[in-house]
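Quick entry, no commentary yet.
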Amino acid sequence: MVNIRGFSLVFAAALLLLGVFISIPVGVQSVGVCYGMIGNDLPSKSDVVQLYKSNGITDMRIYLPDVEAMNALRGTGIGLIVGVANDILIDLAANPASAASWVDANVKPFVPAVNIKYIAVGNEISGEPTQNILPVMQNINAALAAASITGVKASTAVKLDVVTNTFPPSAGVFAAPYMTAVAKLLRCTGAPLLANIYPYFAYIGNKKDISLNYATFQAGTTVPDPNTDLVYANLFDAMVDSVYAALDKAGAAGVSIVVSESGWPSAGGDSATIDIARTYVQNLIKHAKKGTPKPGVIETYVFAMFNENQKPGEATEQNFGAFYPNKTAVYPINFQ
């Protein structure tokens, strides 16, 4: 996760005085949790995996391959998203052999004992480096096929600024041609698009027009999309469905979205309190089973497992964790 988030000002401005009313199902299954490692006081990798297991967390995202963490996951059944570092994409795009070496080192030794679900080719890439995403995905897919590895799907993790015209949600369209090409590849391979969705950053950027209730799945008014007659009761759903609309317009209808990050900081900045963070995260977990108005159930990963004391940027960046590094909970939470 980075400090600055893209968000459509048009979308934010249109959400005037909105609220939310949401019916929350009981007994939902667990969502995943992102395991960031940018801290000098975090537990051992084996202890972290045990913490996932003891809390019933069924899926994990890591941002770089980590041998110790992946070995600790052997035999647990915990689903895993493994990231490809942003700074090696140029090499992997230009050299299929480098992509094959990456797969040989970071996937082949661990499957099937580790349940690797997705490979995230970069995280929130912007600018000229976005041109590397498609060829890296193609090279990774070829390397997986050559190694006879099935069931592991290559995608990329994007932030919301890949979509423009996001209000109403049905107006969403990709802002750059590279995303259309990525979407069509995902349609061909059956992989989902990974999207980092943060109502928090939208809310603090436009508190005048976006209510806290609407941003945190709490009771209030509902907002119809005039183009579809779908009704939106929270900001998360509207943001996700704008990405679905962009996929449809790119000729990639049927591609699913995995929310690869979503969270709320508990300290360090505007509207960052333990109580609000708990409210958002618990409601997010409950809501994931219901899903958005357009596609239904959304596989979702909470950001993040721990407060990370070496994260750069605003102080909030160090305070997205559900747990302190000593493994005690920042706030009471039920992940199931």
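second:
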Amino acid sequence: MPRCCPCATSSSPALFLLPSVPASSTYKTTTSSSRVAFSPCDGAFGCVSGRLRWGTRPRARHATVAASGKDGSGTAEEEKEEDEPGFNPFGFVTDNPSSRGAIQLPAVPAEDGNVGQMLYRIEDKGREYGSYVRSGDFRWFVREIGSSDARRGTIVFLHGAPTQSFSYRMVMAQMADAGYHCFAPDWIGFGFSEMPQPGYGFDFKEEEFHKAFDDLLGTLNITEPFFLVVQGFLVGSYGLTWALNNSSKVLKLAILNSPLTVSSPVPGLFQQLKWPLVGEFTCQNAVLAERFIEAGSAYVLKLEKADVYRLPYLSSGAPGFALLEAARKVNFQDVLRRISAGFSSSSWEKPILLAWGISDKYLPLSIAEEFKKANPNAVKLEAIEGAGHMPQEDWPEKVVKALVSFL
């Protein structure tokens, strides 16, 4: 049996001990899911450390992983009797505990740890309320829930880069229960939507995203003014510039943690994507989206959620190259200047809600406050304590409460 560390012996498995939890520590309950969060990061997103961020009550005082067992609780012989694979391949590509069920070497890597097996285990995840829609030249993946004759109207949710509409699943379900008809598409090149090759009908420029979105609205038969919810960087910003160009189609606008002013910082990920060779390498990181989400939040993702965010990047190189092209085509400062000026008091009159996760590591609350000052009559700021860059993922119940009150 291969040994995981020099101290491993043939008679006893090698144990890896994660930091123990102090008995006197006080925990703050922030979500319905109990978990201890580690600081996730690497060269693109910060630095990995073993430091615990106290979030909620941990599952155990010690976390122990055995080289010969799935969770360190039994011997190699006991694990064989259970007939369950013990190898988690993601333990080798990230130090993030949400991607690490075990760190161990498989007896037969070709059977237990190949990419095909990984994809088979997760390929059906993350498609709640979703289906494929052909619109114009492209095939979109669109989540829809609620009735077309919903008494309170239609909401369209737009995600940012490098994520997908999956982040809105809980908010959509609760807003549908509240009487809204909800749609959330994956932008072209993201999530489960089509991944066109750059130069063959789609170059990942802002105006092309706008046109494709216009076509999709027609295909979905969204002809009346609707409520628009936008979050995130890059394609999230394109959702805001689309709104500026189509204000007559928007009843009210809700913005969740998006760059809104020229002082908004640009995360290192998007800077690295613009660098030759470095960008090509970075965009093919299978855990790119997962790490970006966690580095902007106070929490780590549970494994079942992380699976969905990494699936597009794991199954094909196309999503990474789509992100690469979009990042290299965007002029962040120009887009932010237009957003800042376009939503100022002299240009925009429709109501705007800023539902802002105040633990965002990318965009501090001061960005939202600065944006509000430019149009205090139209903008309402709702600070969401305990949520980070993606409040719809961190604390959907609070987002829903803010949206229902605003809409």
